[in-house]
Structures are given as structure tokens and as C-alpha cells.
């Protein structure tokens, strides 16, 4: 938890997305290619007292309160920072070359999935990669976040930052 808190220090907002949602089956699952790495019977849950409660029938994703690390179900349209929960995964994927693009596309879950390209088309981890794989009519500058599409051979397009999509994290040592 100490490493996680250090990673989150300086990031905006009180809450972060942790990549857990109900999915089509109604069971909690991580945004991973296998999709079934977590079920409600697992003992490694970190829910806040009274959660999950699906207040208003619209809470299908999971956020974490940064102050205490407790989870709560949340409206998937809420705007929070992403966090990736593995000792070596710290940010949305940055793509440096065609080989990495192919690996990321192969790991994609569903139609669209988030990569770490946003706003002025800079990488969320501050890397300097200039590699791009936009669809022919993209970015059309209507939206400020980038997603890759499994259905379109992994080509990228800009979409609304609040759209619910799985995401791919990159591997990197924490310093």
C-alpha cells in the first residue's frame, strides 16, 4: 500500500479507478484479457463498509478512496485517475513501436480499450514515444482521450474520456 500511495501522490482527485467492474455477467472482474480473475467470493477484497451497494442502480465500476485504500462501487461515467495494481504496473500503456502495439492489441479485452494517450496526444507516463497508429480519419479532435480498437486491427481513435472501457497497463519499475 505504501508504494501505491507514493505512486498516487500528486495525482488529482480523491478517488482512482482500479480496473474492476461488473461486466456483462454481473460478477466483479478485473479489466484483464481473461476477465475472470476476480469474483465476489474472493477473500482479497478491500470494500468500504456497506459497499458494494449499487446506489441508484448505476454503480457498475469500482473506485478506490486514495486516503484509506478502500473500494466502493461507482458510476462508470465518473471522472477519476486510473491506477494499475501490480508491483511493476504503474500507468496506462504507452506504445513505442509496432511490436508493442501488436502485443497490446492481443491483450485487449472487448471492442475498445484505453491506452495512455490523451489531450494534446501526449503519453500519461510522460514518455517521449512518437509512435502513432491512428485510424485514417483520426484523431478528429472531438475528444481528448485515445483508445485502441480490437475490431479495427488495433487502430487508435479519440473518444470521450468518460467512456467505460477496459484499459491496458504498461510494465515499468517504480522509482
From TrEMBL:
UniProt cross-references to InterPro entries, sorted A to Z: C-type_lectin-like, C-type_lectin-like/link_sf, C-type_lectin_CS, CTDL_fold
Pfam families named among the record's database cross-references: Lectin_C (PF00059)
The keyword Nucleotide-binding belongs to this UniProt entry's keyword annotation: no
Domain (C-type lectin): residue spans on this chain: 1-85, 84-170
SUPFAM superfamilies referenced in this protein's UniProt entry, alphabetically: C-type lectin-like
Keyword terms of this UniProt record: Disulfide bond
PROSITE patterns (alphabetical): C_TYPE_LECTIN_1 (PS00615), C_TYPE_LECTIN_2 (PS50041)
Protein's recorded name: C-type lectin domain-containing protein
Taxonomic source organism: Astyanax mexicanus (Blind cave fish)
Phylogenetic lineage: Eukaryota, Metazoa, Chordata, Craniata, Vertebrata
Amino acid at each position: 500500500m505504501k508504494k501505491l500511495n507514493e505512486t498516487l501522490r500528486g495525482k488529482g482527485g480523491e478517488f482512482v479507478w482500479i480496473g474492476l467492474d461488473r461486466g456483462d455477467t454481473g460478477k466483479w472482474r478485473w479489466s484483464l484479457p481473461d476477465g475472470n480473475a476476480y469474483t465476489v467470493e474472493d477473500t482479497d477484497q478491500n470494500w468500504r463498509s456497506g459497499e458494494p451497494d449499487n446506489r441508484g442502480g448505476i454503480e457498475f465500476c469500482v473506485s478506490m478512496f486514495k486516503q484509506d485504500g478502500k473500494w466502493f462501487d461507482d458510476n462508470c461515467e465518473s471522472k477519476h485517475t486510473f491506477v494499475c495494481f501490480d508491483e511493476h504496473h504503474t500507468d496506462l500503456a504507452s506504445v513505442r513501436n509496432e511490436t508493442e502495439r501488436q502485443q497490446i492489441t492481443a491483450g485487449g479485452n472487448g471492442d475498445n480499450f484505453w491506452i495512455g494517450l490523451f489531450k494534446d496526444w501526449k503519453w500519461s507516463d510522460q514518455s517521449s514515444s512518437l509512435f502513432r497508429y491512428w485510424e485514417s480519419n483520426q484523431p478528429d479532435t472531438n475528444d481528448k482521450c485515445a483508445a485502441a480498437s480490437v475490431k479495427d486491427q488495433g487502430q487508435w481513435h479519440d473518444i470521450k474520456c468518460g467512456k467505460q472501457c477496459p484499459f491496458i497497463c504498461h510494465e515499468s519499475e517504480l522509482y
